[in-house]
Design a protein that fits this description.
The structure holds 2 protein chains of 2 kinds. Chain A folds into 2 domains: 3-111, Beta-grasp domain (Ubiquitin-like (UB roll)); 118-245, Fumarate Reductase Iron-sulfur Protein, Chain B, domain 2, CATH 1.10.1060. In chain A, a hairpin with a 2-residue loop joins strand 6 (109-111) and strand 7. In chain A, 33% of the residues lie in helices and 11% in strands. Chain A has 8 helices and 7 strands, in the order ββαβββββααααααα. Chain B is of the alpha+beta class. Helices cover 37% and strands 14% of the residues of chain B. Chain B contains 17 helices and 19 strands. Chain B is globular, with a radius of gyration of 24 Å. The chains are: A alpha+beta, B alpha+beta.
Chain lengths: 257, 637
Amino acid sequence: MNLHLKVWRQAGPDTQGRLVDYEAQNIHTDMSFLEMLDVVNEDLIKKGEDPIAFDSDCREGICGTCGCVVNGVPHGPDRGTTVCQLHMRRFKDGDTIVIEPWRARAFPILKDLVVDRTALDKIISAGGYTSINVGAAPDGNAILVPKEASDEAMNFAACIGCGACVAACKNASAALFTSAKVSHLALLPQGQVERDLRVVAMVETMDAAGFGACSNEGECEAVCPKGIKIEGIARMNREYLRASVVPRPMPQGAFAG
Amino acid sequence: MALDSKIPGGPIADKWDRHKFESKLVSPANRRKFTVIVVGTGLAGGAASAALGELGYNVKTFCIHDSPRRAHSIAAQGGINAAKNYRNDGDSVERLFYDTVKGGDYRAREANVYRLAQVSVDIIDQCVAQGVPFAREYGGLLDNRSFGGAQVSRTFYARGQTGQQLLIGAYQSMMRQVEAGTVELFPQREMLDLVVIDGKARGIITRNLVTGEIEKHWGDAVCLGTGGYGTAYYLSTNAVNSNVTAAWRCHKRGAYFANPCFTQIHPTCIPVSGDHQSKLTLMSESLRNDGRVWVPKKHADTRKPDQIPEDERDYYLERRYPSFGNLVPRDVASRAAKAVCDEGRGVGETGLAVYLDFGDSIRRLGEDTIRARYGNLFDMYEKITDENPYKMPMRIFPAVHYTMGGLWVDYNLMSTVPGLHVLGEANFSDHGANRLGASALMQGLADGYFVLPYTLAHYLASTPLPKVTTDHPAFAEAAAGTQDRINRILAVKGDRTPREIHRELGKLLWNKVGMGRTAEGLQEALARIPAMREEFWARVAVPGDANNVNKNLEYAGRVADYLEFAELLARDALERRESCGGHFREEFQTAEGEAQRDDEQFMHAAAWEFHGVGTTPTRHVEPLQFEHVKPSQRSYK
């Protein structure tokens, strides 16, 4: 089939971008969306033009590297699917497809569809872990974890850090991402010791990184390729409130290390 | 140079403890005076960065991704082995060691494998404490499953996303050290050269993939955790950015490359559907626990699978290997699939596929149980193929998955370039000629968390390391060479894309250096690769320039390295005139078509020394001794 594409092209972080028209020809329905872009790029390279820059790596929906807004929806029209697992049989011959990068103040565009998501790493480094060093861990079965708690923690730990939640949110909030890690660790016995310090440090870092506030629209949940639930955000807010109202010394930078 | 594996003396069970005791230490106060470069943030590199940072070393960690959490360890599905014996079913360090040596077809180093089995138990403890949500039983204890044909249940897992959860655990530990200031993170950096000063690894050259800047970084040691070279075949289960470049550049600087012909072709992948395909997707080996593999008995049978009656089906794995059946190791299962397709009994449009059928299991256990066990895999299959595996058998075919070969390292994980340590899939030592399921995650984390912190300390404490800076002429020379290579690629301005050339190379390797290899085919590959290389340098098309994001330029550089590396791969396969594990030479097989080892001639690791592109490398040999696991014909019948 043949498709009309309108693709966001932007040479660098500080230049003006615009939508550019391309024709994607002889596209096979078994192709993934990114393989379709590969085909377009092969043509551009042969013509001596700069190919469309986009990120991808595992191409099986687990690494979180890929992501672009397809016809206004992060990762495209299929629920629970990263754009690398979106297949062209979802489209019809002659369709027009608009392809844009994640748009958020905290995700500067580096080129075309490639954005800088370092801000998400900063949120994790603020507290998304248990502070244990290699070598000191007790036997794995010394910590009993109820199966329900483990399964629920896994539901949140499944986050791939792609940033679609931020891209879908009108406030560009990273609340779903942050709450996924807060929930994963708050649900497990291993996460209890640092529970209060963690949520405060992560939420403050998230706010400082330039992400907006959550206003409960639920668009993040709708586009999340891993089905992370917004009840995580409710939990994060509860955890934050709890940590904030209980008086305790909380010196700056005490959490790290 | 003679290869010294530095295997410690004494009984095998005591070697590692004794070695740790005899190793020199760096005192806590002195650790921050040492700067250690870690390249790669998968399980090996991420774990090493975290562990070294916790100890107080000054760590500089590099990765090609925008975030260290994206390394391809994340895609591992099935699980991680450990000799915990939580199931009371007869597992032990000894048994895991035995299974791994045998599974590797007696081409791994016994002392390394024993150590791996020993530290496997510590890995689980570490990951649990990090909060890795391993599967649990209702009583709250860790769950296990049997995996990859093991006769004990020693595999720990987190749904079908074990690699993801272990990697995120290592990543989080590393990010904690970033916050603490012991680890400095350099994302979006590609290592393009190793800097060797006075015979020791003292730094690396990187390209900043956002600005295009060529950067120089010094260190007291360099640790490489950059994964395998499966993407040389173009189509593989690897991520599209996985590559051999960092390892290959180290090889060109003096690190020997060992056993490159030991490649693992995984039996259960979704078959190739067309030329447009950019990668192949693995369907976890765990599926073989409940799926039965078959093809029609008749040649070129075009009936739909549900119209082929039971007595016209050939469950060839159950027929050939009655005791292991569908659970034979990967190399055996892959070859058997190739054999039935070569006979013309393959299924699907291309005839290059076999059925993996869940019909019996669904009838026995119910669709819900199968969905609970494999739901995410079935969904992924349906998404890719548009077929419902609950109703119709899956079509699967082998694909390049993992590479057992890699840079040669001694017992301390140090390569032939002093100071250059190599971890995880990037080294060669633990899996021999075939890796067992759920052992890759184990090795990556063992090397990073539990082995390197000891052996690196010994190196740093016992080696004179005069201060160097990036003003040293060796940095200027390496940086200029890197820049020159980039300039040359850009200057070609040809008419063929890097992908076209890569695809062509991949097809050649798959056909001639794939599942069945012959002297004739390998010689043909060796004749054709240099011509492809010439073609690349005469005709490659890379528009744009080097001072911003240019993914096609990155890719072209990697393809140029595959075109050099591929020759070594074929040469190693040609010189190893035996069949073992994933290396199957058609000339060397038993009457029943099984791999025929030649222990007399080839019970060794072959480590290659580079002399220049297009110049024949030197083959060095590290003899392997099997004192504990007696080599025998591997039998899964």
